[in-house]
Amino acid sequence: MVTDGRLKPGEPLPSEAELARQWGMSRLSVREALQELARSGVVTVRHGKRGLLNDVGKWSPLDPRVLQARGLMSGDPLDVPRQMIEARRAIEVETTRLAAERGPAEDIDEVERQLGIMRETIDTDYAAFSQADLEFHAALVRASGNVYLASAYAPLEEVLHVVRIRTSAQADIRRRALEHHTRIFEAVRDGRVQDAGEAMLSHMDQTLDDVINNLGAAAFR
């Protein structure tokens, strides 16, 4: 109804009774679903009136449940991953530099452990590979020792999980990711601050290129 264009931003939603009939749900379930959508900024619930569909600019960019629809409604399904990479560059290049400069040994060990899992699962379990990829980045952020950068990164993790599962399904993308993660880890381990930041920046560029060139807009539909 929303993504197929039948309902435009600013237009009233069908009544709860109509939605319940269409979807074979109780009105209570419909009401709860609308409240969830309201919390994500997708709709505005109005007491005694039909709700309204909000413009996509008001939708939460951090709710993975609306990630797919957000991309479709924006008119450019690649806009979501593109903006996400921009945010990650701003956070992770610096946290990686800081990890190389002052990361505690136990955090660097965890980065290495997750890299090992990526190596072990690259050809056998892309879901496990994807999870280790996410844990690798989270460990690097912790290793920076900067609570503000870590707090800025935390809301992205759930959305990253959705995106990473899709991209990691491609074997060639997994191989490139492993190469980049290895270079990042080695620079951090050796305390090469500038190299570590440049390696992470290169990885961010690689990630966006892989989405555009190998998966295209269909990956986020």
TrEMBL record:
Residues 1-56 form the HTH gntR-type domain. One of its GO terms (molecular function) is DNA binding. InterPro entries: GntR_C (IPR011711), TF_FadR/GntR_C (IPR008920), Tscrpt_reg_HTH_GntR (IPR000524), WH-like_DNA-bd_sf (IPR036388), WH_DNA-bd_sf (IPR036390). SMART domains: FCD, HTH_GNTR. It comes from the Bacteria. Keywords: DNA-binding, Transcription, Transcription regulation. Pfam families: FCD, GntR. This is FadR family transcriptional regulator.
